[in-house]
Amino acid sequence: MTMRADEASPAPRILIYSHDTFGLGHLRRSRAIANAIVASSPGARAMIISGSPVVDCYAFAPGVYTVRLPPVTKFSDGGYASLDGTTPLASTVAQRTAIIGRTDASFEPDLILVDKEPAGFHGELMPVLERAAGRGTRLVLGLRDVLDDADRLVPEWERKGAAEIMARFYDEIWVYGLSRIHEPLAALPMDPEMAARIAERLIYTGYLRREVPAMQAGREEPAVARAPFVLVTPGGGGDGAALIDWVIAAYEADPGIPLPSLIAFGPFLDDSTRDGFTARIDRLGGRIAAITFDSQIEFLMRKAAGVVAMGGYNTFCEILSFDLRAILVPRTEPRREQAIRALAAEQLGSARVLLEATAAPLSGWPPRSRSAGTRASRRGAGSGPARRARRGRAPGPGPGRARRCDPRAGLFVTETRIAVVLKGYPRLSETFIAQELLALERRGLSLEIWSLRRPTDRARHPMHAAIRAPATYLPEYLRDAPLRVLRGLGSALTRRRLPALLALFARDLVRDPSASRLRRLGQALVLARELPAEVGHIHVHFLHTPASVARYAALLTGRRWSFSAHAKDIWTTPAWDLTENLRRGLG
Questions:
Q1: Which of 34, 168, 439, 488 has a beta carbon 3.0–4.6 Å from 525's, enabling a disulfide?
Q2: What are phi and psi of 541, to 5 degrees?
Q3: What is the pLDDT of residue 166?
């Protein structure tokens, strides 16, 4: 994709919208694409706006950040409501619309990738689409391989005006699949001109290839996974009770099933239903084990002898990527998407399908199922959507530590990320800072590091390897990154706090008329522009140069900031500079 003429940077900023009204599918697909974008484009940033209540349970690659929307839930009849059960849906949509708008304004993306819903949930994305089109931001709509039966999809998308929105706003439409499996837009009634406009923007990327991620610290797996086993996964679990019941019933009826099973219930399975299943499993003498949720289920996928699943998009991609034998038991309500995909895969020899109405106990396990014709694209997300998106702009080290979380608790609470500004990172002479960062992370704080200089030490202390916070390097000399500085200046010109910053800087420049002072301002402009929207606080170590950069960026963006003073900087920083920083710190 060709970006705006003024966007020559190889490091794109990608905003991904995922409405997430049901299950885990949209979030997991967005996560896979975002992780691939930052892996394939050094310095890239991806910001996922998600309505999933379990987004905080997942670890994301360095440079991928999330903003959580107030969640809604979907009923079996296709209706929606606020997940908390009390807030009117219209109020929740208004909250979500405002959050999306603020995130877009602060993140300033080069490309916006929208998952499935052209206008967003209940039209919540329309204000951002209008603004993005006006400023020239590239817009891409991403669609899974199958949306629904034509008789259900057509009236829904006609009511939403989806074809008109696609033709009006979107530069490209990516279908994450193969046309020989399904053509999701083929049934939409369109006049020839509109059909031609959409057809020329349509790109089939292949299925998004999945890889085993970096293992999270402290990861544990059930004992059953140490030997051959069958993995049973209903995805999020909200509509997977029938599949789980069927598997347990098979083991209850047939003591000769040769392999044990591991059932991943999913975070959305009803508590009482899960308790009932657990009691039945306990009576089977270890032939079935169960877990509630695994945010790195790829590890279990790779080990499993076979998979029993419902046929959702992400599970299907994993079956193809890891070349797994599979039985699919797709749902048919409220959408037939899973059944369409599963039956097409069965025709190509990639899976065996049992529809719920005719499901029988596990006989003849495992099925023979391997077909090169539908393997996940070897390019996958790394060179399909990711390759296209990185033409569009961002930093960060490894995934966060696994956390146990209740998706029904604290739905509207967001964690504030802290940006830590350092003169150089990592440095062997500053292990005391590394100790502090490690301690803060162990207390559950979310950090990211912004360094004014790149490392010069040849050796690296083991503590630095244990720090999970992503590290971004500001231009040490402005001439080294003129485009970043110019973009920072352009962004600053749109901010209402710029006059206050210029007044402060003018006072500082009179007292310190040096190139170093100008460099601090330039670094601050870059920092102010590139800080993710979820960073709510800036903390700086040392009261000399790094403090000026942090102070300027905090003033420009309206964030609070704080500092840690040490011996050398206290005694070597001019008194007037110390006074300014002490007076304005924690402001």
A1: 488
A2: -100, 130
A3: 92
Distance CA 430, CA 435 (A): 9
- On the CB side of 160, CA atoms within 13 Å amount to 22
Alpha-carbon separation of residue 57 from 24, 62, 72, 296 (angstroms): 11, 16, 18, 10
Q: Which one is predicted more confidently, 334 or 109?
A: 109
pLDDT at 382: 38
Q: Which of 150-154, 281-285, 302-306, 370-374 has the lowest mean pLDDT?
A: 370-374
Q: Where are the domains of the chain?
A: 13-209+384-389, 223-370, 417-584
Res 398 pLDDT > 50: no
- What are the residues whose beta carbons fall under 8 Å from the beta carbon of 42, sequence distance 6 or more? 10, 11
Q: Phi and psi (nearest 5°) for 198?
A: -75, -40
∠477-482-486 over CA atoms, to 5°?
A: 120
- The answer to whether 188 touches 163, Cβ cutoff 8 Å, is yes
| H-type alpha helices, 255-361 | 271-282, 298-303, 313-321, 337-347
CB within 8 Å of 24: residues ≥ 6 apart: 52, 54, 235, 236, 266, 267, 314
Task: Give the β-pairing of 80-82 and 72-74.
Answer: antiparallel
- For 456-516, the DSSP string reads --SS--HHHHH--S-EEE--SSGGG-HHHHHHHHHHHTT-TTHHHHHHHHHHHHHH--SHH
The reply to whether domains 13-209+384-389 and 417-584 share a CATH topology is yes
How far is it, in rounded angstroms, from Cα 345 to Cα 332? 16
Give me the helix-helix angle, 25-40 and 313-321, nearest 10°. 50
Q: For domain 223-370, give the CATH number.
A: 3.40.50.2000
Half-sphere exposure of 332 (CA within 13 A, CB side): 8
In this prediction, residue 416 carries a pLDDT of: 61
pTM (predicted TM-score): 0.57
Burial of 401 (0-12, 13-18, 19+ CB in 10 A): middle
Residues 157-184: what's their mean pLDDT?
89
Closest to 52 measured CA to CA, from 76, 75, 70, 33: 70
Fold of 13-209+384-389: Rossmann fold (3.40.50)
Cα Rg, the chain, nearest whole Å? 26
Which sign, positive or negative, has the C-alpha torsion 318, 324, 330, 336?
positive
Given CATH 3.90.1300.10, say whether it is the number of domain 417-584.
no
How is the chain split among helix, strand and coil, in percent rounded to 5? 40, 15, 45
How would DSSP label each residue in 21-53? -SSSHHHHHHHHHHHHHHHHSTT-EEEEEE--T
Could you give the C-alpha distances from 496 to 131, 419, 519, 586, in angstroms and in order?
19, 22, 22, 21
Contact indicator for 406, 274 with CB cutoff of 8 Å: no
H/E stretch holding 386 reads helix 385-389
